[in-house]
Batch of 2 targets.
Target 1
Amino acid sequence: MEPNTGVTFDDVAGVDEAKQDFMEVVEFLKKPERFTAVGARISKGVLLVGPPGTGKTLLAKAIAGEAGFPFFSISGSEFVEMFVGASRVRDLFKKVKENAPCIFFVDEIDDVGRQRGTSIGGGNDEREQTLNQLLTEMDGFEGNTGIIVVAATNRADILYSALLRPGRFDRQVSVDVPNIHGRAKVLKVHSSNKKFDADVSLDVIAMRTPGFSGADLANLLNEATILAGHRGRTAISPKEIDDSIDRIVAGMEGTVMIDRKSKSLLAYHEVGHAICGTLTPGHDVVQKVTLVPRGQARGLTWFIPSDDSTLISKQQLFARIVGGLGERAAEEIFFAEPEVTTGEAGDLQQITGLAKQMVVTFGMSEIGPWSLMDSSTHSADMIMRMMARNSMSERLAEDIDSEDDIRSCIPDCTLPHQNQSGGNGQDH
């Protein structure tokens, strides 16, 4: 038990909608008479649903901190222990009731609250007894006692439906990865105790980190701080930020190629992606091209999405396919077809999967706006219609063939340097 978590809503950033929901809960906990006077009854349980690292535990602590209540916490896996799971639930709820009003947080509740019969391996009987005891305990106290049970999961789809019935976890709050504005707020919170060079912009970092959770962003700034320390710097520069993003997304830096032919081929590969992406309408903006290997990648071309929209247009999907084929196009143009290599195997796999989705799932082919999810409708002919050349790829080929400057600048803008920023690449 934590008598005082010391966490407030000011410490939680990037999840404004979830915070708003919990502000109502805190108001009820602080001034229950205002709500009970009109017959209101607060939810006994709140379920936080979202991917790892999005701040679910921090939110639960912030409720307790804002209300000034004690905070109990346990992981769902701690409940499930042979012969003692149900008794542990009884003991915990006894302590919770003795310290009411309070917040009781159950992390990873799917470990104990999953649907019956979905457990892997043995221990199903013990798990179900523990789950039954949890349901019994939640039914055993009134919502106005000041006890709120907050649970977290990233797999709400496998939870036992009885847990979500009214009177139990009947309020669900989504805690997703933050958008660009949320990421900027998260970065502001985690940068408060760090020193940066004047040319480091948190807004730029937020723009470059789509899909990052709050924990990812905190780790990013910590990695940048460590790198700055290793390099003997007194403040974090854009270089440390850049290297930290690369490390988190793609892995540790590997050994740079020294064989000139392989290095030249790799340079054409990556710049092929960059040029096709730059010249294709609807494609994300090129941020950087690098020949420094990371993880399994020998080189990388980074693109920055223009926004965090979950809706993607047909033009944008076509653009991704065209950009992904830039590596093969560069090989055919500069080395001729007999010299085509196996380097684009991963790109081809992704492109084929995306093209299949456009045909089968999104209805964006010549077949028309039909969903072909039924396996009986899948045929090689249908899929191959989507793979045919389209007007976008033809226009792109004409643009590249007509621009001698583009073809001539490729060796110059890659081989002397290991990295090339988007701005410099676009200038060429």
Target 2
Amino acid sequence: MALLVGCFREYQELADAYSDQAVVMGIFRHLSHIAQHFLMTLIFMEEIDERHLVRFAESAQEAETVTNELKSLRLFLEQGRCVKVNPYVAFQIKRILSQQVVCSLRIKTKPDKRRPNIEKIVEHFHISWNKIIEFLIWRTRTPSISILQLLIRAGLISQDSQDFQQTAESFRFLLKPTQHQICQLLRQLLVSYQDRAKTAIILYNLSIGKIGQDYSVKGISHGLIADLYELGLIYKYNSKSKRFYVVPQIIGILTNSPKDNIITERFLVVETNFRVYAYTNSELHIVLLSYFMRLEYRLPNLVIGFLTRESVCKAFRDGLQCAQIITFLSNHSKNHSMPDNVAEQIKLWEMERSRINDQEAIMLDEFVDLSLYKSTLNFAVNCGAYIWDNQERRVIILKKERSMPVLQYLQHLDRI
């Protein structure tokens, strides 16, 4: 669902995308259960008064939330006080109920004499994807201009003169499961092409493609094929090849339930004393752990570190959030969870940061008399520059960006 939200500029583009079964099936499976219930209930009805939708929910608020969710994707269309299911969507759902959904990409008629085995296809994905991840971390192996622009639009890197800088969003991106990373870049890939409906149809059909089946590049833009190949999401022998294969990592990523897509490598043991054992020799894993841990020892296939206040707070300053650190540790933990006291302490460290806010300010003191102090204080409050004051010491603290009118006021009085 998230792939399409906000990607289309007008209704007709979305309607064109909904002309394909794979798109509708993918959107439907990513809806909440109650939204799916609404949709299935109403596909055989012409329209219904929006106020009556509360009958299908536990509360009026839930009905309103679900209705807004369906409207945002144009699955529900408004007609005065009534709503109805988008006719394109209703038609495709009825087809899906009566027949199997198959990939609509062109299949090569001639057999491939050089058909690659599954190991070669998977290896291509890991090599290509790791190049992207390594570039985000170490700025090595600069990708093509098209992929660079994709990463910039996604907010994963920023360009300063000739250098590329890592962003806070990049830190958050690297801690996500690979499946979520792929979805995030696919969304950026979708909005970067002029014909978004056709691009969406291709991406969703890749998600229901068949492993080992060779598909034709005919009808797909050269730029999209090149981008998908560089990201490792399709396999080709070379740039001139007229056929391609989908990699297992993209199968089902857009058309299965989100919970079915989460596959993570479990290599961590988190102890109640904040010690973390990482059974890995992956440089990528070690770099990710160093974002929020103090690494102490490195042995063959084992890294030992501690979650400390300093290391976690540094991660917060770099843009990571408490929930992201906890989710990363839980997803990769061999025990499928982490100690409650460790999770609670990370939350407390994040709460510490929200108790104090720093702000540039200007302090005014040494007022010659109380009347000047009070008139200046009133002026500062009225113009929105006031932060704090102490009448006993005759001190006023002003917001730096709004202090100029107050200073001009004092200069006008010629008593500063």
